[in-house]
TrEMBL record:
This is Guanine deaminase. Pfam families: Amidohydro_1 (PF01979). Residues 62-424 form the Amidohydrolase-related domain. Keywords: Hydrolase, Metal-binding, Zinc. Transmembrane segments: none annotated. The lineage of its organism: Bacteria, Bacillati, Actinomycetota, Actinomycetes, Jiangellales. GO terms for cellular component: cytosol. It comes from the Bacteria. Its cofactor is Zn(2+). The keyword Iron-sulfur does not apply. One of its GO terms (molecular function) is zinc ion binding.
Length: 429
């Protein structure tokens, strides 16, 4: 057993639903076999557990591990290609790199870079958009297992409107997906996600093959993109002869409680109603939406309709792995929307980056640091003398300290990461 001591902040109850920030400047957490077995003010808890080893996290904040609900493994090396809208960015920046993952050696290198990036940013769970090649998806799951991350991922499938090297057929997509799911779904912390890239690159027959995989793999997830860009939406609704983009997935039974769809920047009310009725989740990707000029995310409409929302970094259209930055950009976006924006507090940002993500990925045992939960955590501690350090020391209270952390904290400030109570190697500065 180990006792962790530090300033602990989490959001067990949703601030979108009357909950708030739970904070203690000197909290103790007793962890046994990866589970938090006791939690309370350090002094009192220490008297009850006088013999445990104490890990003192001096300075900074201990938060639940971040949950990234949308991040592309093959795109880690193309982060930063700014200046293009979605369809041009895909053609010029993302897809040429994704083709290189046909080489398993190259894919293994990318997988290592990707896993290092996730852990280095304090992410402990993620819905990962995989690659178009089965061997590359194996490389990802292998790299993730070596570190212990909680990852849900799968083979990305497309059969039209992409470069030929990225295309498959419904039959091949089905068989390769099933083979990967047999290898990885439920192996350790891994789970399988059926992953049509987006309806623009998928025929209805391919989406039907995806539905067949979902039927054959109990507990599998679905992940894809929806309503990101106006030109994309126009093309999808024309190609499918449907009035909404979401219907292309929904008519094949691909929208459910274990579905995470990225973006949804331009939904109509019918789509929001369908998402709420299906209990599906939206991965809001704030820096990606800003970088690609996709538009401002209508968070208030999602909240009003009762649609579940969490955060995604959307690397590589997004600007990095840090969910602190995504939270800050989410806040900026809502501010810029004025009276149409949702007024986000630091507690909302933490909830979106942790508890909401755990709910979206159906991980009830993580996302906050209550007794009974598994100890997935990140310690964010500023470099001494940095502006973040100065501002944190002068914070007026815990919510202010959290706002300072979302504003000034970065991957470089991640001083420790634990999954199931085990420390995960982070490059020590
Ligand atoms: N839509 C289809 N593929 C992608 C992708 O790789 N990134 C983003 N942001 N949107 C997509
Ligand atoms: Zn994406």
């Amino acid at each position: 057993m180990t006792m962790f001591r530090g300033a602990v902040l989490d959001t067990p109850e949703s601030p979108f639903d009357g909950g708030g920030l739970r904070a203690s400047g000197d909290e103790g957490l007793v962890v046994r076999d990866g589970v938090i077995v006791a939690r309370g003010a350090f002094g009192a808890l220490r008297r009850e557990h006088p013999d445990e080893d104490v890990v003192t996290l001096d300075g900074g904040l201990l938060l639940p591990g971040f949950v990234d609900t949308h991040v592309h493994f093959p795109q880690v090396r193309v982060i930063g290609g700014i200046g293009l809208p979605l369809l041009d960015w895909l053609e010029q920046r993302a897809l040429p790199e994704e083709g290189r993952l046909a080489d398993p050696g190259y894919a293994a290198g990318v997988a290592a870079d990707f896993v290092g990036g996730l852990v280095g940013a304090g992410t402990t769970s993620a819905m990962v958009f995989g690659a178009h090649f089965p061997a590359a998806v194996d490389a990802l799951f292998g790299a993730v297992a070596a570190v212990g991350l909680r990852v849900t991922s799968g083979l990305v499938v497309s059969d039209r409107n992409l470069p030929a090297d990225l295309l498959t057929t419904p039959e091949r997509a089905h068989d390769e997906s099933i083979a990967l799911a047999r290898r990885w779904h439920g192996a350790g912390r891994a789970r399988y996600a059926v992953t049509p890239r987006f309806s623009l690159s998928c025929s209805d027959a391919l989406l039907a093959a995806c539905a067949a995989v979902l039927d054959d793999v109990p507990g599998a997830f679905v992940t894809s993109h929806v309503n990101e860009n106006l030109e994309e939406i126009e093309q999808v609704t024309q190609l499918f002869g449907l009035s909404t983009y979401l219907a292309s997935y929904d008519q094949r039974g691909l929208v459910g409680r274990r579905t995470v769809l990225a973006h949804n920047v331009h939904p109509d009310d019918d789509e929001l109603e369908t998402l709420a009725a299906r209990d599906a989740s939206i991965a809001h990707c704030p820096t990606s939406n800003a970088a690609l000029g996709s538009g401002p995310f209508p968070l208030a409409r999602h909240v009003d309709h009762g649609v579940r929302v969490a955060l995604g970094s959307d690397v590589g259209a997004g600007s990095g792995f840090s969910l602190l930055k995504e939270g800050l950009q989410a806040y900026f976006t809502q501010q810029q929307l004025g009276t149409d924006g949702y007024p986000l507090s630091p507690a909302h940002l933490l909830y979106l980056a942790t508890t909401a993500g755990a709910a979206a990925l159906d991980l009830p045992d993580v996302g906050h640091l209550s007794a009974g939960q598994r100890f997935d955590a990140v310690w964010v501690r500023p470099a001494p003398g940095s502006t973040y350090d100065v501002a944190l020391r002068h914070a007026s209270g815990p919510e202010d300290a959290l706002g300072t952390t979302f504003t000034l904290g970065a991957a470089a400030d991640v001083a420790g990461v634990w999954i199931d109570g085990d420390p995960v190697a982070v490059t020590v500065r």
